[in-house]
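Training component of the fellowship. As part of building independent skills, the fellow (R.M.) carried out the full modelling exercise for a liganded target. The chosen ligand was coenzyme A. The inputs are recorded below so that the supervisory panel can assess the work.
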Amino acid sequence: MKSLPRDYCPVVCDSSRAQECLDMCKAILADIADKNPSWYIIDETDDEYRALFSSPECFALGIEAPDGTLAGCGVASYRAAELERFRPFIPEEDFAVSGRVGYIEFIQVALGYRGLGFQRVFFRELEKLLVERGAKYLTSVVSPDNRYSLANFHKEGYREVGRYVHQRTGYPRLIMIKNV
Ligand SMILES: CC(C)(COP(=O)(O)OP(=O)(O)OC[C@H]1O[C@@H](n2cnc3c(N)ncnc32)[C@H](O)[C@@H]1OP(=O)(O)O)[C@@H](O)C(=O)NCCC(=O)NCCS
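Fellow's submitted model of the complex:
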């Protein structure tokens, strides 16, 4: 696995970086809008997206480029509404324990910083925080068409346990789990 290039640092992304992450997200969505809109879906409104960065249920990390701008960001959480999707695939006695199941909400890498292995750095760093807090199951969802992201999920040891159709868009989603 690639490690973080020199001069790039992992940073905690608090609410002061939320707008920068939202702007990055919008640039990414605009970039895929014509050809690959199914690759990345954000259901949150702008306010809800920004609120993730100050929620006690979430933690957000960024990778800062040498000039101080964010090259990417990733958010993990324990939001119950999101975790519910994974309940059928996790033993009930584990699912019932707070913190035992962690959720990778999203990882986004800014357009000028692709191909440096940053998505896998985010997996590693977010997973570390979830595992420190007691996670035994790491969960997320991904588009089956997003070959770059899906390849990284597989390289990181996630397996597909199911799939569903995203209600608003009709796009398919794979349900991914990694046992720690
Ligand atoms: C998926 C994503 C996080 C991958 O980021 P990454 O850290 O650049 O991934 P990698 O470094 O493993 O890139 C592997 C290869 O795919 C290419 N690549 C990655 N994402 C690409 C994209 N969206 N379009 C075209 N090529 C892409 C890279 O250039 C690289 O090619 P190379 O090996 O020839 O250099 C990034 O594309 C992204 O932010 N996409 C939008 C958000 C998203 O889909 N997130 C995942 C859902 S949680």
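The panel noted the following from the submitted structure. The pocket of coenzyme A is lined by residues 28, 39-40, 106-109, 114-119, 142, 146, 148-149, 152 (CB under 6 Å). The two ends are 18 Å apart (CA to CA).
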